[in-house]
């Protein structure tokens, strides 16, 4: 069987970015005279892009949402990889998947231009054939547009034997809607809601081992 294409989420799947995301939100809140929110509270707001994040973090400023998002994106870009790190086993798993001949893509709701910067700083950008994110398509995950764009840029057709790997319901749902197999990363900070998956892993190194058994 041909090696599959694998579409990875970023936050909560490859990287633990909660510290930098929370820091950027609280820096924006401070600019508007608001006190910081706890890490746990901000983590629950993550998963649907920057606009939804700021909508949830500063609901009383909803009429200034464009301004908030611009502020938050600036704050985040200025403190991009200060408190962000790869989850254990991620680099090893990516290396093994590439050695197996898999094509790898990152499809994230994070602002697209930040994704390669983060991956490069963490030393894993070279494993990916393409990265796509917020701003590259008009509708974010769970809409499957990001997956289709990534496949188009790689010059491949999406197949039912391909995989989506992620921690949040947006990832699991996008896999279901695109007709792909789904791997849930239990170690991440996302909420699966009522979605289902083919396999769940506590460490990403379990995933290539699982593929070898198929």
Report on the architecture of this protein:
The strands form 2 sheets. The chain has a 6-stranded parallel β-sheet, sandwiched between helices. Strands 2-3 form a two-stranded antiparallel ribbon. The model has no long low-confidence stretch (mean pLDDT 96). The chain is globular and about 55 Å long. It has helices spanning 18-31, 39-43, 50-57, 65-78, 90-99, 114-121, 145-154, 169-178, 206-213; strands at 5-8, 15-16, 85-86, 103-111, 130-134, 163-166, 181-185, 199-201. Strand 4, helix 6 and strand 5 form a beta-alpha-beta unit. It is of the alpha/beta class and 214 residues long.
Q: Summed up, what is this model?
A:
41% of the residues lie in helices and 16% in strands.
Which features characterize this protein?
two-stranded antiparallel sheet; 9 helices; alpha/beta; single chain; 214 residues; six-stranded parallel beta sheet
State the separation between the terminal residues, measured CA to CA.
Answer: 9 Å
SS-based class: alpha/beta
Helical content stands at: 40-55%
Which runs of at least 5 residues are low in confidence (pLDDT < 50)? none
The secondary-structure element order is EEHHHHEHEHEHEHEEH
User: DSSP strand (E) fraction?
Assistant: 15-25%
Overall, the morphology is globular
> What is the residue-mean pLDDT, rounded to a whole number?
96
**Alpha-carbon Rg, integer:** 17 Å
Q: What's the tally of helices?
A: 9
Topology:
Blueprint: E1 5-8, E2 15-16, H1 18-31, H2 39-43, H3 50-57, H4 65-78, E3 85-86, H5 90-99, E4 103-111, H6 114-121, E5 130-134, H7 145-154, E6 163-166, H8 169-178, E7 181-185, E8 199-201, H9 206-213
Parallel strand pairs: 1-4, 1-6, 4-5, 6-7, 7-8
Antiparallel strand pairs: 2-3
Helix pairs in contact: 1-4, 3-4
């Amino acid at each position: 069987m041909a090696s599959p294409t694998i579409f990875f989420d970023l936050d909560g799947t490859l990287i633990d970015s909660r510290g930098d995301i929370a820091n950027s939100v609280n820096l924006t809140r401070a600019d508007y005279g608001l006190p910081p929110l706890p890490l746990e509270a901000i983590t629950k707001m993550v998963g649907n892009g920057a606009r939804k994040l700021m909508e949830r973090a500063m609901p009383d400023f909803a009429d200034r949402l464009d301004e908030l998002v611009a502020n938050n994106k600036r704050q985040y870009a200025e403190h991009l990889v200060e408190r962000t790190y790869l989850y254990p086993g991620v680099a090893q798993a990516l290396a093994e998947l590439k050695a197996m001949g898999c094509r790898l893509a990152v499809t994230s709701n994070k602002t697209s231009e930040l994704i390669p910067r983060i991956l490069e700083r963490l030393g894993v950008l070279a494993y990916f054939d393409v990265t796509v994110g917020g701003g590259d398509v008009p509708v974010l995950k769970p809409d499957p547009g990001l997956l289709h764009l990534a496949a188009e840029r790689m010059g491949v057709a999406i197949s039912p034997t391909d995989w989506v790997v992620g921690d949040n319901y947006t990832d699991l749902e996008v896999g279901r809607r695109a007709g792909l197999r789904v791997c849930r990363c239990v170690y991440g900070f996302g909420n699966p809601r009522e979605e289902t998956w083919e396999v769940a892993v506590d460490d990403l190194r379990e995933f290539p081992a699982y593929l070898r058994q198929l």
